Amino acid sequence: MLKNTLLILIFIIISFDVSFAQSNSLTATLLERQDKNSQMGELSIYHSPAIDSLIYRYILYNERLNGMEGFRIQIYNSSDKSAREESGKVRQKFMTEFPDIISYATFAKPGYYKIRVGDYRTRIEGTKYLLMIRKVFPEAILVPDIINFPDLNKK
Fold first, then answer.
1. Scanning 19, 72, 77, 103, which has the fewest C-beta atoms within 10 Å of its C-beta?
2. If you average pLDDT over residues 102-124, what whole number do you get?
3. Residue 88 and residue 76: Cα distance in Å, rounded?
4. Structural domains of the chain in order of their starting residue, each with its CATH number
5. Is 55 helix (H, G, I), strand (E, B) or coil?
6. pLDDT higher than threshold 90 for residue 31
7. In whole angstroms, how far apart are CA 72 and each of 37, 114, 133?
8. Which residues 6+ apart lie within 8 Å of 47 measured at CB?
9. What distance in Å separates the CA atoms of residue 115 and residue 74, rounded to the nearest whole number?
10. Rounded to whole angstroms, what are the CA distances from 48 to 65, 72, 121?
11. What is the distance in angstroms between the CA of the first residue and the CA of the last residue of the chain?
12. What is the pLDDT of residue 36?
């Protein structure tokens, strides 16, 4: 009986420790400036601790995605016996026609080879390129996908 009580007590202490560990990442630390100046004012933000928890969960969710939600243009999708070779030819043709747009070759079970191109954050941005690509690949469609983070240093 004493052994069971001790195990329950240890479990409760560990669970409290884990639940409070998530609140270490405060939203106030997201807004801190690195270059502190003596002439700068001070900003105080008062909010519910639940907001910190939600923002922290959102950050963790995006880190696990290895990218962000967005759109790509799918120019090829097939599961035929010759789909692997055909997808390579389609990708090569795309790369010669549109050298500035990145293409991605993927394989999805149970045997689909797909060629998707571009990294578009919004449907409107993707539609602009879709109309241009459809002139060469008439069966191209805009699909939601996990895209790479945009390069913020590029102008």
1. 19
2. 93
3. 10
4. 68-147 (3.30.70.1070)
5. helix
6. no
7. 44, 11, 12
8. 27
9. 6
10. 27, 38, 31
11. 68
12. 66
